[in-house]
Amino acid sequence: MSGRQVDRGRLADVVLAAVVGALGTAVAAFDDDTTALDLVLVVLASVALAFHRAAPRAVLAAATVLGTAYVVHAHPGPLSALPVLGAVHTAARVGHRGVAAAGGAVFLAGYVATGPGTQHAAERAGLLAGWFLCAVVTGLADRNWQAYLRQTEQRALEAERTREEAALRRAGEERLRIARELHDSLTHSISIVKLQAGVAVHLARKRGDEVPPALLAIQEASGEAMRELRSALQVLRADEPAGTPALLVERARAAGLAVELTVTGDERPLPRAVDRAAYRIVQEALTNAARHAGPAKVRVRIDYGTRNTTDHTTDHTGDRMGELTIGVDDDGAADPDRPPVPGTGLTGMHERVSALGGTLRAAPRAEGGFSVRARLPLGDTV
What we know:
By secondary structure, the chain is α+β, with helices and mostly antiparallel strands. The chain is 64% helix and 9% strand. The chain contains ten helices and five strands.
C-alpha cells in the first residue's frame, strides 16, 4: 500500500511539473521577444517542481533563481511566476514558511526592478504579491490539515487499541475470578467428598465388610473430578502475567525509557493475587509514562517491608509491615493544576488494589510529573 502511495505521489509531481511547464512555455511562445534561453529557463524551473517532495528548499531556490533570471531577461507577464508560486506553496506546506516568503520576495523584487513602466509594474507586482501570499497561506493550511488528519487517525488507532486492551484485561480478570471461585468452592467440596469416601472404604475393608460398589464409584468419580478441575483451573489461569517488575523495567529501558528500579525490604515470594496486581500496576504505570510523560526519567520503587507481619507495627521508613508498597514516579509534563481524567488503565489499577483491600494514589506531583503509589496488604500467608 505504501508503494502505491509513493508511485501516485511521484506521478502527481510529474503531472504538476508538466502542467506548469506547458502553461509557461505556451505563454512564452506568444511573446515575439522570447529567445531559446527564455524557454530553457521556463522549462528548467518547471521541471524542478517534480522534485519538491524530496528537496523542497532546493526546489524553491532553483525555481526562484531560474524564474527571476527569466523575468529579468525577458520581462514577461504575471504567468511567468507559476513555477515560483508552486515552489513557494510546497515549501510552506512542509513548514518552511520563512524560506517560502523569502523566495517570493526575491522573485517580486526582480520582477518590479525590470518591469516596463512604474505604474504598470506596481500593479502587476501587487497582483503577484497576492498570489504569493495565497501560496504561503494555502501551504500552511494544507500542512495543518494533514497534521490534523494524522492526529485523528492516531487517536482512532489508540482508542481501538485501548478498547482491545481493556477487553482482554477484563476477560482475563473474569477468568481468574472464576478460577478462584472454583478453587475456593468446588475444590474444597470435592476434596471432602473424596476424603469421606476414602475413609468409608478403608473402614469397610478393615472390618472385612464388602465395600459397596456405589462407594467405590464415588471415590473414583471424586478423584477424576479433582483431576479435571485442576486441568480447568490451569486453563483459566493461563493468562497470568509471566515475568516480574524487574523484567518490565528492562523492557521499558530497551524501548528507550529512562527507568531506575529500587527494591527494598525482605524480598520474598508473594501471594498469587498480590504478585499479579503488583505486576499489572508497574506495567500500567510504565506504559502511561511512555505515552504521556515525554522524554522523562522514571523511578520505580518496590518495598517488601519485613517478614514479621504479626504485630503490623511500622518500620523505619514509615510503611506498615505486612504491606507491599509500589511507587512509580516520573518528572514528565504532568501539571498538578490539571489532573488527568482517569482512563481504563488508572481505573483498572484502582479496581485491582481495592479488590485486595489496599490503597492507591495516582496523581500529578507538586514538583511536576506523575506519581503512582500503591499499598497492597500481604496477609498472613505467603
